[in-house]
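User: Structure please.
Assistant: Input sequence and predicted structure:
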Amino acid sequence: MEARRSAAIYLTVSFGWTWALWIGGWWLGDVRQAQVTPQMTLVDVAAMAGAVGFLPQLLFTLGVFGPLLGYLAAGRYRPVWGRPTPGTVLLAFSVPVVTVVPAFAITVASGVPMAGVSAGAAAGAVGVYFVSNLLTSGTEEFGWRGYLHPALRERESTFWAAVWKGGLVWAVWHYPLMVMLYWQLGFVMVPTIAGFTASIVAMAWITALVYERSNSIALAALLHALNNTAGFALLLLFPETPFTVVTAGMAWVVVAVLERRYRVDRQPSLRGGSPSNA
C-alpha cells in the first residue's frame, strides 16, 4: 500500500509539474508571439530577462524539474554519489561518444554543409550547454533512476521488465514536448514519436545499467547530460543533418553489446536488496 501511495505521489508530481509548465509556457509564448524552445541554456534564459518572451521560456525551462520534485515528494531517497567504479565512469563517458560518432561520420561523408562557427565558439557553446543540461535535464535522474527504476525492480522479476516499463513512462513524460516540436508534421509526427519512444527505452536500459552498477544518481545524471550534449554538438555543427536518427539506432547497438557483456537478468533482482555492483 505504501509503495503504491509513493508511486502515485511521484507520478502525479513529476507529470503534473512538467506538463503544466511546458503546456503553460508554450501557450503563453503563443499568446505573446514569443516562441519557446527546449534548446535554450540557463544562460540564454537569464539573458532574456525583461524581454516579452522571458516568462514563457522561464516556465518552459522550469518544467524539466518535475521528476526531481516527484522524487522529493515521494520521500524514498537513495544515495546521490553512490559507489562509482572506474568501469562505470568509463561507461558513462563512452556511451555518448559511441552513439554520436557514427552520425557525425555519415553526416560528413554525405557532404552535409557545416555551420559557419569557429572551433572556439563551438567549444564554448558545447561547454555551456553541458553544464546547463546537467543542472536541468540531469536532475531528471533523481526521479527516473533514483525513484522509478528501483521501485519497478522491487516488483518486477527481470531487469528488462523494469526497464521497458520505466522507459515507456519516461518517454510519455516527454510527449507534450514532442507534440509541440512536431505537430506541424501532421501524421508523420506519429512515427516520429514512436521512434523517439524506442530510443528512450534504449537509453533507459543503458542508464539503468550504469545506475545499478554504481548506485549513483550523480553518475546517471552525468550520462544523461553527456548524451544530450552529444546530440546538441551534432546539430550545432551540422544543423541540416538528417542523420540524427543514427544515434537512436546506435543506442540499441550499445544495448545489444552490453547485454551480452553483463547478462543483467542473470543477476539478482533488487527485491529486498540494493543495486548490484558485481
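The chain is about 70% helix and 0% strand.
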